[in-house]
Design brief:
By secondary structure, the chain is mainly α. The protein is built from 3 helices and no strands. It has one domain.
């Protein structure tokens, strides 16, 4: 991978991280408002989050890592 491609990749990762942090801040603010306005709904919301976490786990196994590496090296 050449220097320009690595720099572009790093810039993209920085953008993704920035968006993730911004989204997390907004979600935390909404959770606080929800908790203060309707504690029962907030408890149900937290329970639903735990249910979805269990359903949508993603594990990076060696095959997935090798596939990601090969795709990065192709570009």
């Amino acid at each position: 991978m050449n220097k320009a491609a690595v720099e572009q990749l790093m810039n993209t990762l920085n953008e993704i991280i920035g968006l993730s942090v911004e989204s997390r801040i907004k979600l935390e603010a909404l959770e606080r408002v929800q908790e203060n306005s309707n504690p029962l709904l907030h408890a149900e919301y937290l329970g639903e989050i735990e249910n979805l976490k269990g359903q949508r786990t993603f594990q990076l196994n060696p095959a997935t890592i090798a596939d990601l590496k090969s795709k990065l090296l192709e570009s």
